[in-house]
Amino acid sequence: QVHLVESGGGLVQAGGSLRLSCAASGRTFSRYTMGWFRQAPGKERELVARINWSTGVPFYAAFVKGRFTISRDNTKITVYLQMNSLKPEDTAVYYCAARPTEGPDSYDYWGQGTQVTVSS
């Protein structure tokens, strides 16, 4: 059973930084792609960034390029999202998700989410 647990959310002022963590367990993730999504009130959930666990190759949504960095730690089996230059519009619940890299672009496993609030 895959288990994803996010942490690191909180309240920060605009221009500040936060680092989100996603501790993964339940299987070997070398053949998985890990994603960070977010959902703001009244809006649809959107992909923020994803990373191929095996290659480490990242992908970023246009609205976070140059501000956010996704990475993974093979020893700790943890995926990180370093968020810099935060803006009020980054306020949302952030979710970690996992899917097999070879397969449909739909995520099978989700964490419970962590709230990020950016004040102006």
Structural account:
This protein has 120 residues and is an all-beta fold. It has strands at residues 3-7, 10-13, 18-25, 32-39, 46-52, 58-60, 68-73, 78-83, 92-100, 109-110, 114-119. The model has no long low-confidence stretch (mean pLDDT 96). Strands 2, 4, 5, 6, 9, 10 and 11 form a 7-stranded mixed β-sheet that branches. The N and C termini lie far apart (40 Å). A hairpin with a 5-residue loop joins strand 5 (46-52) and strand 6.
Structural class: mainly beta
Strand content: over 45%
Radius of gyration from the CA trace? 13 Å
Morphology call: globular
Discrete helix count: 0
**Main β-sheet: number of strands, strand sense, barrel status?**
7 strands, mixed
- Assembly type of the chains comes to single chain
Return the average pLDDT rounded to an integer.
96
Distance between the termini: 40 Å
Write the layout of secondary structure elements.
Layout: E1 3-7, E2 10-13, E3 18-25, E4 32-39, E5 46-52, E6 58-60, E7 68-73, E8 78-83, E9 92-100, E10 109-110, E11 114-119
Parallel strand pairs: 2-11
Antiparallel strand pairs: 1-3, 3-8, 4-5, 4-9, 5-6, 7-8, 9-10, 9-11
Task: Explain briefly what this protein structure is.
The chain is mainly beta.
